């Protein structure tokens, strides 16, 4: 069985779609998958069982990227095409079945919209796929000390909680749990690194950003006890990794993009959803919520 799965260009949306992809993998034993996604999200699928290939869809003028995708896929007879982008490409490929998301953005959780394509309620939770080499590299970098992960970046400035707020947050958390170490996560590129710089300057912090694959990043997040960060692809990746995750929201809508996972929650700046500046999210409110999510310290061993 051959399945073409067309998903998002943005990392956060692509992570959200992994729950449906894992559902298909579990319910279609032996199926072989071709994933079409944007270049930022491509590494998310590299260790997915049943993967044939990942087709990177790089946006071009006049929507020519959809013609590129058609050329890659037209010679295959697909058993199922799942198109979360609602593109016309899906209609010009041979397929026994098609499930195509239409209608653009709608109110309510994006996770539920994706699941509705197959009538799934509750929706399947996002997942990550790693291999032992990713975990080995993560352990070599992070060590064995308990970790708190902070994600101070996002894909646009309106979603970024001020870096000095993150520094104050870390001070409070480290006072509550002096045995825990800071791991700083951010995406590739100098802009992301500069945004994370105030946290990277904290003595003893671990630089866990910029230069790692998504699978390696996911493996590192799995080793952390708690992630606190802006609404971003990293936030969704942390939630999918199953760790305690606190997403910080301002002008983006938590009703649509809250982190999805058994241990995930969020806090938003006061004001109308979609309009509240994230700078209005009070430091103490985040500290108070984060302290409730800290793991209990292991008892000290008596000599």
TrEMBL record:
Q: Which UniProt keywords apply?
A: Glycosyltransferase, Transferase
Q: Does the keyword Metal-binding apply?
A: no
- GO MF, one annotated term: ADP-heptose-lipopolysaccharide heptosyltransferase activity
Give the GO terms filed under biological process for this record. lipopolysaccharide core region biosynthetic process
Keyword Glycosyltransferase part of the UniProt annotation: yes
User: Which SUPFAM superfamilies does the UniProt entry name for this protein?
Assistant: UDP-Glycosyltransferase/glycogen phosphorylase (SSF53756)
GO CC terms of this entry: cytosol
* Gene3D superfamilies listed in its UniProt record: Glycogen Phosphorylase B (3.40.50.2000)
Name used for this protein in its record: Glycosyl transferase
The organism is: Acetobacter oeni
Classification from the root reads:
Bacteria, Pseudomonadati, Pseudomonadota, Alphaproteobacteria, Acetobacterales
């Amino acid at each position: 069985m051959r399945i073409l799965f067309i998903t998002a260009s943005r990392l956060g949306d692509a992570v959200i779609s992994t729950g449906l992809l894992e559902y298909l993998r579990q319910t279609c034993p032996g199926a072989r998958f071709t994933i079409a996604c944007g270049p930022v999200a491509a590494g998310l699928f590299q260790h997915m069982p049943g993967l044939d290939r990942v087709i990177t869809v790089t946006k071009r003028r006049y929507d020519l990227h959809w013609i590129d995708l058609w050329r890659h896929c037209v010679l295959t007879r697909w058993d199922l095409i799942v198109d979360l982008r609602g593109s016309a490409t899906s209609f010009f490929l041979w397929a026994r079945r098609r499930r195509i998301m239409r209608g653009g953005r709608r109110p309510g959780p994006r996770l539920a919209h994706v699941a509705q394509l197959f009538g799934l309620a509750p929706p399947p939770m996002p997942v990550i796929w790693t291999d032992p080499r990713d975990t080995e590299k993560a352990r070599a970098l992070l060590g064995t000390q308990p970790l708190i992960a902070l994600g101070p970046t996002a894909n646009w400035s309106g979603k970024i909680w001020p870096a000095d707020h993150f520094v104050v947050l870390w001070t409070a958390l480290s006072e509550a749990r002096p045995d825990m170490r800071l791991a700083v996560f951010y995406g590739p590129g100098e802009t992301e690194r500069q945004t994370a710089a105030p946290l990277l300057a904290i003595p003893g912090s671990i630089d866990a950003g910029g230069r790692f694959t998504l699978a390696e990043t996911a493996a590192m997040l799995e080793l952390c006890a708690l992630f606190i960060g802006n609404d971003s692809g990293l936030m969704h990746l942390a939630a999918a990794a199953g760790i305690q995750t606190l997403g910080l929201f301002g002008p983006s809508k938590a009703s649509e993009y809250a982190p999805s996972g058994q241990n995930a929650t969020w806090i938003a700046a006061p004001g109308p959803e979609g309009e509240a500046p994230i700078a209005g999210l009070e430091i103490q409110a985040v500290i108070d919520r984060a302290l409730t999510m800290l793991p209990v310290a292991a008892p000290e061993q008596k000599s």
